[in-house]
Amino acid sequence: MASSSYKACGLSQRVAVVKILFRTVSAAANPQPKADFLKGEPHRKHPGMTSLNTLRLPQELQVAAQSVIQKAQVTQLTDRCHKLINYLWSRKRMVEDVTLRQKALGLEKELWEKAMQKMGDIDEEALRNQIRKRVLSELRQTTYHWNSLKYDEELGVVYMASRLAGGFAAVTRALNEIKKRDPSFAPQSLLDFGSGLGTVAWASHLHWGDSLKEMVCVDSSGPMSVLAERLLKGDEEEAEPLFKHVYFRRFLPVSPKVQFDLVAAAFTLSELPSVKEREDAVITLWRKTSSYLVLVENGTKEGHQMLMDARDTLLKKQEQIVHDPRPARVFAPCPHEMMCPKLAREPITPCNFQQRYHPLPLSGHHECQTEKFSYLILSRTEPAQEGTEGLEWARLIAPVLCRTRHVHCHMCCTDGQLQHKVVTARKHSRDVYRCARNSDWGDQLPIILKVEKDAESDSE
Question: Class of 59-88+150-379 per CATH?
Answer without folding.
Answer: alpha beta
